[in-house]
Amino acid sequence: MRTPKFLFLILVAAVAVLCAAPAVAQANSGDTPQQKWFRDAKFGMFIHWGVYSVLGDGEWVMNNRHMPIEDYETLPQQFNPVEFNAAEWVAIAKAAGARYITITSKHHDGFAMFATKQTTWNVVDRTPWKHDPLAELARECHKQGIKLFFYYSQLDWHNPNYYPLGGTGQSAGRQPGGNWQHYLDFMNAQLTELLTNYGPIGGIWFDGWWDKPNADWQLERTYALIHKLQPEALIGNNHHRAPFPGEDFQMFERDLPGQTSADWDKNPVISKLPLETCDTVNDSWGYTRGDHHWKTSTQMIRYLVGAAGRNANLLLNVGPLPTGKIQPEAVERLKEMGAWLGKYGDSIYGTREGPVGPRSWGVTTQKGNRIFVHLMEWQDSALLLPTLQMRVTRAYLMQTGAPVEVSESEAGTLLRLPAYDKAAPDNIVVLETGGR
């Protein structure tokens, strides 16, 4: 993931090569079964975990502290997460209502959190722990019915063949003259391991293309390899461009689709592919010792609802401790989200964006003949919607079942609301509809 320190360099590079970016993929005529599943899932748990957690300063610590490779290579010897429990992690995700997990298999430091044979720079060969956490997590995900996605960084601050250097990792001390084609072969070999040694997976979540946007990444070759090895695996790439050919879903970082608060998404393109937005439970991706800025469950529920109302999933991140435990503050908030979804998940799971686009008061979602009006920022006793193109046959408040009066006029469809809890994260009006 990104750190604000390096956004300017990345943006300069991106602008310089914008015209050289791969052609935009044509919109799919229809979803595959896997894409439909992804659209229906709506909520996933993101996990950023690696040897960087030892320093408690986030996943960018190697770059931010200007650590040379020889200094960074002392971290694996200090990484011994004996409290890691794959069953516990998956149970936390399920209790939160998440339908899938995406975990970092290799971040920008190049350290593989799995048993790769392509390099000894991995969790089995370099740590006293000697475990393959992805293998344990994959077994538990299959057992508990959760899909598993692997995050994979195309950027690599450690590999000598990641050359010429991109906009980050300049202080790692790598010698010039690496072979770029060898690096791509190395990356594809690691992806082959991830796609053949861990059973069926949900997909590959790429990051780091933005570090060298004018490089010959040979994406067609890599994407074809993934689709050949696991045809049902979905491919997404956090490159902040319109989707490239071969990608199966589009992602947004720290922004809902269409929003432009992130410095790298000033002119976002929203494709017709399945969509996903990612954000953090606090402010950090990887474990950061001083980060106590925990979002409230209300904030996270509203972000999830806002994503669903824009036809997107929410991938919500936790950064486990170097011991292997997920921070209790994160677990508590995830449980609260799960409790809310246990009651009102029918208005989220399996829905699509509703007939009324995002408004200051909230969003709408839709499933079959039911429209869910999500009132997240509303205090009044009535709400005027644009005229709906279908007849409302019944309307009620999802929380209490109390009827909602509906009337039509030239101004639109008016909802007269019964008493409701104005402090709730989301008050949901269910509109059952029939033909006009």
Describe this structure in words.
A hairpin with an 8-residue loop joins strand 9 and strand 10. This protein has 2 domains: about 350 residues, TIM Barrel (Alpha-Beta Barrel), CATH 3.20.20.80; about 80 residues, Golgi alpha-mannosidase II (Immunoglobulin-like, Sandwich). Helix 5 packs across helix 7. The strands form 3 sheets. The chain has an 8-stranded parallel sheet. The N and C termini lie far apart (about 50 Å). By secondary structure, the protein is of the alpha/beta class. The longest helix has 17 residues. It contains 11 helices and 16 strands.
Within CATH, the superfamily of the largest domain carries the name Glycosidases
Task: Give the total of domains.
Answer: 2
**Main sheet summary:** 8 strands, parallel
Report the mean per-residue pLDDT as an integer.
93
CATH class of the largest domain equals Alpha Beta
Give me a quick take on this structure.
The protein has 436 residues and is of the alpha/beta class. The protein folds into 2 domains: 348 residues, TIM Barrel, CATH 3.20.20.80; 81 residues, Immunoglobulin-like.
Give the helices and strands, then pairings.
Blueprint: H1 7-16, H2 33-41, E1 43-47, H3 61-64, H4 69-72, H5 86-96, E2 100-106, H6 123-126, H7 133-144, E3 147-153, H8 180-196, E4 203-207, H9 219-229, E5 234-237, E6 250-253, E7 275-280, H10 297-308, E8 312-318, H11 328-344, E9 352-353, E10 362-367, E11 370-375, E12 382-385, E13 391-397, E14 405-409, E15 412-416, E16 427-434
Parallel strand pairs: 1-2, 1-8, 2-3, 3-4, 4-5, 6-7, 7-8
Antiparallel strand pairs: 9-10, 10-11, 11-16, 12-15, 13-16, 14-15
